[in-house]
Write a structure and sequence with these properties.
This protein has 298 residues and is mainly α. The protein has helices at residues 2-33, 39-63, 67-93, 97-104, 106-119, 125-144, 151-173, 179-201, 210-235, 240-247, 249-262, 268-284, 286-297. Helices cover 84% and strands 0% of the residues.
Length: 298
């Protein structure tokens, strides 16, 4: 028993590293699928099917939830829908996945700021050091576009803000509800709402090619269902702050995968902006970064 517990932190780290790779691959899968599907239809279909798959695993727990619990979970799903709607529209317009991934990672940095503004929490001093550094980094990315925000940049930035609110809300809701049924409900709500929105505002293709269906399937099975399942399990083996440190690697993996898959390169301004954002993330989680480094060193 003791030996098993001692191995749990390492297992959590390895699982979370896998999660970041699946999440990064999801940017590639999604971008490829968007070549043949409207953005809201893609994200709605992806999360509806992923949610229904998770529902199968969560059925016993779902049966034990009260109507109030179901309503609460669905309500958080509304916020999740808004965050993903902005994210997929930003991805659809994005010309540089690596840059978009780093902008999206601002959501992690904004979590303690939102907690302070809405819930009265007291974020650590490192947050206030990291925030201006991240804003300078975002400013450099905007300068790269010629002193203006590109549509993909402000869409992804809005998504990051909504994700920071979502993380804060979920952190409080999950104290009272099991994570798996909560996730299953949220993903299903996202799928239903964004699919309906797509039906109202987007023209649907007459048919989907086999390659597009393949990318959609990869997004559903690998970057949604498997990713969230592993993430929930891994977070149960470690602390939220420790998990957040490793999850920051998603942006790095995305930039590397985009460079390998699309041949993306960054200008000096883009590299400087992304580097400052990642530095801000490290500063914001410095206590846990230091603990992780010491653990790996021993």
């Amino acid at each position: 028993m003791t030996d098993s517990l001692e191995r749990s932190p390492l297992r959590a780290d390895l699982l979370l590293l896998t999660v970041t790779l699946l999440a990064a691959a999801g940017w590639i899968f999604s971008k490829e699928a968007l070549a043949g599907m409207p953005p809201l239809l893609f994200i709605g279909t992806r999360f509806l099917l992923a949610g229904l798959i998770l529902v199968l695993f969560a059925l016993p727990a779902l049966r034990r939830l009260s109507r109030r619990d179901l309503a609460t979970s669905a309500g958080v799903g509304l916020l999740f829908s808004a965050a993903l709607g902005f994210w997929v529209m930003g991805l659809f317009h994005s010309r540089h996945l690596g840059e978009s991934a780093f902008i999206n990672s601002l959501g992690i940095l904004l979590v303690p700021v939102v907690a302070r503004l809405l819930f009265g929490d007291r974020p650590p001093r490192t947050t206030w050091i990291a925030l201006p550094i991240a804003l300078i980094g975002f400013g450099l990315l905007s300068l790269n576009a010629g002193l203006r925000l590109e549509p993909s940049q402000w869409l992804i930035a809005t998504s990051a803000l909504l994700f920071s609110l979502l993380i804060n809300t979920n952190t409080r809701v999950v104290r009272h509800l099991p994570a798996l049924p909560l996730t299953a409900i949220q993903l299903t709500v996202v799928g239903v709402l964004l699919s309906l929105a797509s039906a109202l505002v987007e023209p649907w293709p007459a048919r989907l090619g086999g390659d597009i269906l393949g990318w959609l399937a990869a997004s559903i099975l690998l970057s949604s269902t498997l990713r969230f399942f592993l993430q929930i399990h891994a977070q149960g083996l470690t602390t939220p702050s420790h998990a957040a440190v490793i999850l920051m690697l998603e942006a790095v993996w995305t930039a590397l995968l985009a460079a390998a898959w699309y041949g993306e390169t960054m200008t000096l301004l883009q590299l400087a902006g992304c580097s400052l954002i990642f530095t801000a993330l490290l500063i914001n989680r410095w206590y846990w970064v230091r603990k992780l480094v010491l653990r790996l060193a021993t």
